[in-house]
Amino acid sequence: MRKIGVLTSGGDSPGMNAAVVSVARSAALYGIPLIGIKRGYNGLLRKSANILDDLQELNLETVLDIADQPGTYLRTARCDEFRQAKYREFAMQTLKDMEIDGLVVIGGDGSFNGALELCRMGMPCIGIPGTIDNDLAYSEMSLGFDTAVNVCVDAIRKIRATSRSHDRPAVVEVMGRHCGDIALTAAVSTGSEICVVPEVPWTVEGIAMQLQRHLNKGNYRATIVLAEGCYAAMAPFNLYKFLTSHGKACYPEEPMSAVRFASVMKRMCGGAEARANVIGYVQRGAEPTARDSSFAFEAGNLAVRLLRDGIGNQVIGMHNGRVFYMPIETALKRKKQFNLPMFELVNSL
Ligand code: F6P
Fold it and tell me: Which end of the chain has fewer CB atoms < 10 Å from its terminal CB, N or C?
């Protein structure tokens, strides 16, 4: 192993920097020079005028202080070109030119697919799961999920406090793309009454009935946690017709959103002043929790040890609280199991 490369790719996630630092400390311990690749796979495509904007030798002094910082020091990006063989060949040439014999890829499933292609071309790669969405089926956790959930919990508790003061229901939208894990875990952890996710089909009328049930019981601050991808699982609903016939201006063909959903709930539930909150990027830009940082620490070291020992083509994950590794291809074939019993519990109590 002449040199190791490390990159962060896809949406950033809290803990990515901690993983890079762990990789850097481990590489230094084993005497292997480390190259940081900027903006995900884009750095390997050498798009920048200045090579230092694409590839940078990472010495320990440069990165030591970033371990607890949010975001990613290496920058990140999605790289559509990497789906094409000619760009992956270019990337392989860059790796060869730089004398990089092994690569650590920190990202989600798209990034792991890129790593798998590089492995097939002969470059040993190790994946570390870095996505707030927690949508990688093979691992119990991915870097950033715990942090994102804790940001949501903190925000929802505050929202529920002011909702209680005003006896108002709340609608809170959280991130997670096509995965409802952030929404479900945040809903459970805050005692929120209703959770809506992309994994379970739902109707606007059904959620309004659920909300009405809580209002009837005197719980006026009932909270509805929406996963951002939930609208894909929503039964057809004519938002324009409903709102305009209830005295609210609306654009034809306007898509459902948290704000519109709150307006609909208000009109379906006897004028209850439902208010919408979209938590947004604060979930991704937060400082990593201890859980994310410690996973990053262990995963970064294991990634370097594997490459040092000549083992590539693996992803690192967490099972029963222990860090483990398995072949990338096998991991990517796993189908994510949504926690339906927990979901049903939240929505039925
Ligand atoms: O996949 C991570 C994620 O943060 C999702 O939760 C979200 O849907 C998406 O990325 C947002 O992407 P962008 O960075 O393009 O806004």
Answer: C
